[in-house]
Every structure is written in structure tokens, then in C-alpha cells.
UniProtKB/TrEMBL annotation:
It is found in: Membrane. This is Sugar phosphate transporter domain-containing protein. GO terms for cellular component: membrane. It comes from Mythimna separata. Residues 319-332, 341-360 have a biased composition (Basic and acidic residues). The lineage of its organism: Eukaryota, Metazoa, Ecdysozoa, Arthropoda, Hexapoda. The keyword Transmembrane helix applies. The chain crosses the membrane at residues 12-32, 44-66, 87-104, 116-136, 143-159, 165-189, 201-220, 240-260. It comes from the Eukaryota. Its main location: membrane. Residues 15-279 form the Sugar phosphate transporter domain. InterPro entries: EmrE-like, Sugar_P_trans_dom, TPT_transporter. It is a multi-pass membrane protein.
Length: 360
């Protein structure tokens, strides 16, 4: 009994540390990227080039760790090569989602303020429901559907209030919606691809960044950034490259902690954690940039957050009910298909759902 309690406590601590690191790194990454994408000091109108450079930094870190086997006495980096044909076949579909996800995230951040960035990307839960039905044939309860309806209403209210305040960007909002869609797909398929890399998030981060370096090149051309790069005059600035390098470090860290959080919890928990984190990020951003928002604007944030939390609670209850039902052996792998989790991840994900609900 003591061993069980000790094991449960250890899992709680691990999950708490991973989620906390994800929050810290993610919030820092948003602010650093906003500076890179919009500050007068950098003034480089090439968001995809900036994101591509971050992938290069992340890949370089992973490559170095791979060559030396990790950091002696700290951790061992798993062996693996992104240039194996078998690995490429399994991982590249996920890397395409990863590339589009970080590209649209940064494009959204370029055109909208950090406070609105939260609302602009709040539809991930809604897309989860849609893809669970379209891809997996999983039906969603009426209570969860009602929560999704409120999330959509909160999103609409936030867009409406942002427009009234004169800071609305249609293209930024569109990129935010696409970013939510890609995040939902990425979260779902990460759980499917991790077994192909022996559940090693280091390897997955390594491979994703390796393939993204190539995948970003045509996107940079299509986005019309080559003339901008040709005419840019600050490439000899040490401050510019310092900012770019810090952005790359943050990009590496957020990629790792995103995959790690999905691994120790579930795609649903990851999305809810991201929603709650974004709420804290919004409060910090309004203070940092000295922005004043009206009551309805804040109401939209509250609606999205509370609806997402209720969705998580209802989903948790459904999972508990399903776990008590006898399931034929040939269908057991579909019990948690909405989350696409392995059996050993189920208890940890339920634990974190409870943590999130009580913390909120």
C-alpha cells in the first residue's frame, strides 16, 4: 500500500514539475517571439525565417547532444538518426503538422497582441471534438458539446471586443484558428508517433526540427520573405543575432516540454493546460504592455477558460465511466481513442485532470 501511495505521489510530482516547466517556458517563448516579430530594434518582416532559424538552433542542440550521447552525469541522449528512411516515413507526417503549427503560431503572434493571442488560439478544444468524430468516429456528449458552444461564443465575443477597441487583425485571427487546428492534430498524432521513437521525446524533438528546416524553405519563398531578407540591413548586428539565438533556445525548450507534457499526461490535458497557461499569460501581458481592456473583453477570456475547464471535467467523468465498462478484448485499444493514450498513460492523465480541476 505504501509503495502504491509512493508511486502515485511520485507521478503527481513529476506531472506538476513538467506542467510548471511548460508554463514558464511557453510564456517566456511568447514574449521573446513577440519581441522578435514586432520590435523596432529587430524590424525584420520575415516571421517564417525567424521560426526557421529557431528550428536550426533546436536541431543543432539536439545534434550536438546526440553526438556526445547527452550530458555526462546528467542524462543520456537516445541514439537515433533523422535520416533513416523508416524514421522519415513514420515521423514526417507529424513534422508537417509541427511545422505548420509553429509557423501559424508565430504568424498569429506577429499580427495580434499578446493579450489577444490567447483568445485567437482558443478553438483547440473544439477541433479536438471535431477530429475525434471525423477521424476516430468518437461521439461527444451533449454536455461537452455545450462547452464547445460556449468556447466558440467566447471566441466570437473576444473578436468583437478586440474590433471595438481598434486592435483587431483579421489575418492574425485566421492564423490563430489555423494554429489551433494544427495544435489539435499535432497533440493527437504525437501520442501515435511516440511509440515509433521508443517514447523518447528528445528524439521526436530532434526529428521534428530536422525535417522542419527543410519544410520551412518553400514556405519562406511562398510567403514572399526572400526580398525582405535580401534588403535587411541588420544582419551584422550582434544584438539581432543574440535575440535570434535566445528565440532559438526558447523554441527548442517549448518543443521539448510540449512533447513531454503530452507524454506524461494526454493530448486533452495538454490542451487544457495550454488554455489555463494562456489565461495567466494574458493577465501578465496586459500589465507588461500597460493595456486597458473593457469588461466584455475580460468576460470573453473567462468564458473560454471556464468552458474549457468544464469540458475537461466532463471528459474525465466520461473516461471514468468507460473504464468501468467491460470491453471486448479486440476493442480495448479504442477505449481511450479520444485521447490516443496508451494504458500506462491513463492513470497519469486522470491524475492531472484532477489536479487541473482542483487548482482552477
Amino acid at each position: 500500500m505504501k509503495d502504491q501511495r509512493s508511486d502515485l505521489c511520485s507521478r503527481y510530482i513529476t506531472i506538476f514539475i513538467v506542467v510548471s516547466c511548460y508554463w514558464i517556458v511557453s510564456i517566456a517563448t511568447v514574449f521573446v517571439n513577440k519581441t522578435l516579430l514586432s520590435s523596432q530594434e529587430v524590424a525584420l518582416e520575415a516571421p517564417l525565417f525567424i521560426t526557421w532559424f529557431q528550428c536550426i538552433v533546436s536541431f543543432s542542440i539536439c545534434y550536438t547532444l546526440s553526438r556526445f550521447g547527452g550530458i555526462p552525469g546528467v542524462f543520456a541522449f537516445p541514439k537515433g538518426s533523422p535520416w533513416s528512411m523508416d524514421v522519415m516515413r513514420r515521423v514526417i507526417p507529424l513534422s508537417i503538422m509541427f511545422t505548420l503549427m509553429i509557423a501559424t503560431n508565430n504568424l498569429c503572434l506577429k499580427y495580434v497582441g499578446v493579450p489577444f493571442y490567447y483568445v485567437g488560439r482558443s478553438l483547440t478544444t473544439v477541433f479536438n471534438v471535431v477530429f475525434s468524430w471525423v477521424l476516430l468516429g468518437q461521439r461527444t456528449s451533449s454536455k461537452c458539446m455545450l462547452c464547445c458552444g460556449f468556447i466558440i461564443f467566447g471566441f466570437y465575443l473576444g473578436v468583437d471586443q478586440e474590433s471595438l477597441l481598434g486592435s483587431f487583425s483579421l489575418i492574425g485571427t485566421v492564423y490563430g484558428v489555423i494554429g489551433s487546428l494544427m495544435l489539435s492534430l499535432y497533440s493527437i498524432y504525437t501520442k501515435k508517433v511516440l511509440p515509433s521513437v521508443n517514447q523518447e521525446v528528445w528524439l521526436l524533438s530532434y526529428y521534428n526540427n530536422a525535417y522542419s528546416i527543410i519544410l520551412f524553405l518553400p514556405l519562406i519563398v511562398v510567403n514572399g520573405e526572400l526580398p525582405v531578407l535580401w534588403n535587411y540591413t541588420n544582419f551584422d548586428s550582434s544584438y539581432f543575432w543574440f535575440q535570434m539565438f535566445i528565440g532559438g533556445i526558447c523554441g527548442f525548450a517549448i518543443g521539448y516540454f510540449t512533447s513531454l507534457q503530452i507524454k506524461v499526461t494526454s493530448p486533452l490535458t495538454h490542451n487544457i493546460s495550454g488554455t489555463a497557461k494562456a489565461c495567466a499569460q494574458t493577465v501578465i501581458a496586459t500589465q507588461w504592455y500597460n493595456e486597458t481592456k473593457n469588461v466584455l473583453w475580460w468576460t470573453s477570456n473567462l468564458i473560454v477558460l471556464s468552458s474549457s475547464c468544464l469540458y475537461a471535467r466532463f471528459k474525465q467523468q466520461e473516461m471514468e465511466q468507460n473504464s468501468r465498462k467491460p470491453v471486448p478484448e479486440e476493442k480495448q485499444s479504442l477505449v481511450s481513442a479520444d485521447e490516443l493514450q496508451s494504458p500506462r498513460d491513463t492513470d497519469a492523465s486522470k491524475d492531472l485532470e484532477n489536479i487541473h480541476i482542483h487548482r482552477k
